[in-house]
Every structure is written in structure tokens, then in C-alpha cells.
Specification:
It is a single chain. The chain is 30% helix and 18% strand. The C terminus is likely disordered. Helix 1 packs across helix 5. It is built from ten helices and 14 strands. It has two domains: 207 residues, DHBP synthase (Alpha-Beta Complex); 99 residues, Threonylcarbamoyl-AMP synthase, C-terminal domain (Rossmann fold). The chain has a ten-stranded mixed sheet with strand order 1-8-2-3-7-4-6-5-9-10, sandwiched between helices. The protein is α/β, with parallel strands linked by helices and 338 residues long. The chain binds adenosine monophosphate and magnesium ion.
Amino acid sequence: MAHLSKVLEANRSNLDHCAQLLRNGDVVGMPTETVYGLAGNALDLNSVRKIFEVKGRPLIDPLIVHFSNLEAAEPHIESNDCVRRLAEAFWPGPLTMVVPKKNSIADIVTAGLPSVAIRVPRHPVFRQILERIDFPLAAPSANPFGYVSPTLAKHVQQTLGSRIKAILDGGPSELGLESTIIDLRNPEQPVILRHGPITESQISEVLQMQLTRHVDQANNEAAQSAPGLLTKHYSPKAKVRLLPHGDTRPRSEHTEPNASTTLVLNQKPSWYTTQHNIFWLSESGDLSEIAHNLFELIQRLDQQDVQQILIEQAPEQGIGQAINDRLRRAAAKLEAID
Ligand code: AMP
Ligand code: MG
């Protein structure tokens, strides 16, 4: 088996080592509060190319660029008042803003678009790396393209470990879902491109504006202006089938000890005794906890070669919108091959 990159404890000497790798143009697996990222120098074409290569990500799928604060981003973007207000409210944190870019951001980063997606993350390990370097970091999720995003350092090691030199450990990702993406190219009409931990209502409250509904179909205009919003994404090996929220009936196929189908519910069902192949994402049905545990559980089931995952959708409110968005994309694989 190919040599696997080590998972490094985030101590001073390993942080220095990883900062040096980044200066040398290498890419590094790093924790963020959303999911683990595969980071490289956003201002260096070779590093950016390496990110696409390592992930097997198509060049039409633009990258998010991470800065230590809004001031560091400003020389590279056309800012506006909405950007400043949202940065004030949510940065550092899990909100990505799409804004017009300046020439310092190369076309390869943005898939040729005149706009760039920017974020200021709050994970202390990511921030300590940014403090050590004088360039921003392009960092998509550190998973092979199309697979479920990593929420543990070992997920990165298992999938990309033979292709990168280092992975920094920052513990389990606090939020477990990718950032919310808001398009602010037209500040009069902000559009949510991807649901995430910062909810639509939190954003409208800060902007004092209704947001335009996010559109999700691969073949509509908004999706074409934001390549990468592919319907099929976040797909595990197992087939995923969705159940409506609240459909938590026990099914006979899950009570077999060696059943290849598992049932994943939002919360522990009242009928549960000791059945095999039944899982829940939160003891109490708490949405943040469901988000935190979702990708980890799916990857654990994939490791156990579960064939089919029947999964209950979250209520379509708050962060439940983001959870359901990821579930629909995970399930889209099935539609694509059936
Ligand atoms: P991730 O896969 O988590 O790195 O998220 C990157 C996603 O951000 C892409 O797949 C796009 O959907 C979106 N994105 C990045 N850059 C842009 C951009 N310049 N314009 C619109 N959407 C973007
Ligand atoms: Mg991703």
C-alpha cells in the first residue's frame, strides 16, 4: 500500500512545518470548523493546480479562498456594504461570500469566473497557520471529488493520505457541514448558493433584506453562474434513500443481525431496544448535533460496507435546510445510476 501521510498533532513545531510546506507550494490537510480542508497557496498557480489534482476536482469547480480577516481580503476583491456587514456579524465563521475579484486572484481559482468566494474561518489551528504565512489559502474540502466531506483527520488520511505530505489534526469538525455560501455580486439582491451553518434568516436579519431563493437545479441559470453546485455530490459508496422527516417506523429488514441496510434517524426512536443496524444522529433530535454527526456516521457505515442507508430527513428549518440539501445530493447518486 502507498505510504500514508501522518496525522500531525497541532503543536508549534508541526504548525511551523506545515506553514513551510505551504510556502514551498505543497498542499496540507487542515481542520476548519466546518469540515477538513485541503489547503494551498491561493496566489500560487502550481499550488492551486495541485489542489485540483489531489482531489480529482474538475477545473470548472471554483475554490473558496481563506483569509485571516476582511482587511487581508480587501486588496483582492471589490467590496460592498453587505460584505462589511456580514463580515462584522459572522466572521470569523462558516459564511462564504461570493464577490467580484481583482486580477491578483488567478482564473484557475475561480474556474474563470470574474468573482471569487472568500471566507475567514474560525478554527484556531487554521488561524494559527494563516498567522504564519503571508498569503491566503485556497481550501476545498479534503475529500476525493464527489465523496462525503471529512470531519476527522483520519478521514483525510484514509482517502487522500497517499497524495499529500501532511495532515494537521484539529479534532472533530465542530459544525460538520460545509459553509453557507452567499452571492453578493449584486448587493441589491443577495442569493444563497449553498445552505450551511449560518441560516437564511440570520443573514436576512443582518442585511434587513429578503434573500432571493437559492436554486438547486444543475440546468438553471443561477447554477451555471456558480459551477460546482452539482446535484450529485457528497455521495457515499452505499446507496442512500431518503425518508420524510418523522417517518421513523421500525422496518423488519433492520432487525436482522447481518442486514446490509441501515436505518439512520434524527433521534433515538421510542421503540428502540437492541436492534442492529439502527442509528440516530442525536439523542434529543438537536439539529446542530445532527449536522455535527452526519458525515462521520455515513463514512463509518461506508467503512463497514453497508449497502444501503435509509435516512430520515431533518425538519426543513434552520440548519435542517443545509442537512437536507446534503442528503438530497448524497441520494442523487442512486437516481443517476438507476
Ligand atoms: P467547496 O467545495 O466546499 O470548496 O465549495 C466551493 C463551492 O463554492 C463551489 O463548488 C461553488 O459552488 C462555490 N463557489 C466558489 N467560488 C465561486 C464563485 N466565484 N462564484 C460562485 N460560486 C462559487
Ligand atoms: Mg467539497
